[in-house]
Amino acid sequence: MSAGFHSLKIAELRQETPDAVSIRFDVPNELRDAFAFRPGQHLTLRREIGGEEVRRNYSLCVSPLDDELRVAVKRTAGGVFSNWANGELKAGDVLDVMPPHGTFSYAFDAGKARSYVGFAGGSGITPILSLLKTALLSEPKSRFTLLYANRNSLSIMFLEQIAALKDRFLDRLQVFHFLEEEEEEIELFNGRIDAQKCDTIFSRLVDPAAIDAFFICGPGPMMETIEGVLEGRGVARERILIERFTTGAPSAAQVKAAEALVARAAQRKFTVELDGRRRQVSFDAKAGSILESARAAGLSAPFACKGGVCATCRARIVSGSAEMKTNYALTPEEVARGYILTCQAAPTSDDLVISYDL
Ligand code: FES
Question: Domain residues of the chain, as ranges?
Answer without folding.
Answer: 6-101, 115-243, 252-355
